Amino acid sequence: MIKILFFGALRERLQQDSLNLPLTTSCSVEELQHRLCAHSPAFTESFTSANLLCAVNQKLTKKDQMIQSGDEVAFFPPVTGG
User: Fold this and answer.
1) What values do phi and psi take at 21, rounded to 5?
2) How far apart are CA 29 and CA 52, in angstroms?
3) Does residue 54 sit in helix, strand or coil?
4) With contact defined as beta carbons under 8 Å apart, do 23 and 44 qualify?
5) Is 70 left (phi over 0), alpha (psi -120 to 50) or beta?
6) Are strands 66-67 and 2-6 parallel, antiparallel or unpaired?
7) H/E segment holding residue 36
8) pLDDT (tens digit per residue) in 1-38
9) What is the DSSP letter of 41?
10) Each residue of 65-80: pLDDT tens digit?
């Protein structure tokens, strides 16, 4: 099982802040994004965006990062500040 967290505008678009997902074999962040697209059109629209950021176990990572059962994965839009 992995816990997936959604932040910012992504959370609002998906109308949920988290999701628990069974994971029997490890997969990459990119593979997880493709798997999430099957949930609904809102997920498809959100996860085909090239500018989503991802953190695995609270560390910013790239799409080729492998995820294992027990990991926490967070997706969020880019943040600007000043």
Assistant:
1) -130, 130
2) 11
3) strand
4) no
5) left
6) unpaired
7) helix 29-37
8) 999 999 998 899 899 999 999 998 999 999 999 999 88
9) H
10) 999 999 999 999 887 6
Question: Please, are residues 42 and 49 in contact by the beta-carbon 8 Å criterion?
Answer: no
Distance CA(13)–CA(24), nearest Å, equals 28
Distance CA 64, CA 54 (A): 11
φ and ψ at 42, to 5 degrees? -65, -40
pTM of the model: 0.89
Structure tokens at 61: 């990572």
The answer to whether the beta carbons of residues 37 and 48 sit under 8 Å apart is yes
Burial environment of residue 7 by CB neighbours within 10 A (0 to 12, 13 to 18, 19 or more): middle
- Number of C-alpha atoms within 13 angstroms, CB side, residue 46? 28
What 8-state DSSP symbol labels residue 1? -
Q: How far apart are CA 40 and CA 48, in angstroms?
A: 12
